[in-house]
Input
Amino acid sequence: MFFVYLQDIEFNQIKVSSMKSKSSFKKVFALVLFLLFMIGVKLNAQKTVEIPSYKKFKISIEKTENGLKMKSLEGTAWIDLSFSLKNDKPQAIDEFGMTSLKDTKPKESQDLANFKFTISKTDEGVTLKGLEGTAWKELSFSILDNEKKIIDQNGMTKLN
Output
């Protein structure tokens, strides 16, 4: 009996020390995970995000009886564009005027904004999709007959 009792005590001591080492392992593991997380946060915080700069352009868009009229206010080689569009049929526009989606651009000009977008007439107004040289990917807005809206490289803007 005494021998069995001694074995039980030894077994309990081994079990307790085994539990202590598991508890210590969990603490060390948690500490290592925390340190790795903090290092990852620090590395991410040090990454620099390059914000692209776009050359300035400003264009007014007017809905007319026959379609759309665009007037360049800044950054293009053209002054006025007028065209009719069927609903959902896009027209590509760049710094040189009306173009097609397939056209390759001529050499970039130092004096002009280098951009390309499409404009489509919708039931509610117009939708523009920025293809290059714009901070926006898509602009949609309502426009009444003979109403003017102003866009630039950053989106909707005012005339000033």
Observations:
- The first strand starts at residue 58 and ends at 63.
- The beta strands are 58-63, 68-74, 80-83, 91-94, 97-99, 116-121, 125-132, 138-142, 148-152, 155-157.
- Residues 58-157 form one domain.
- The longest helix spans residues 2-46.
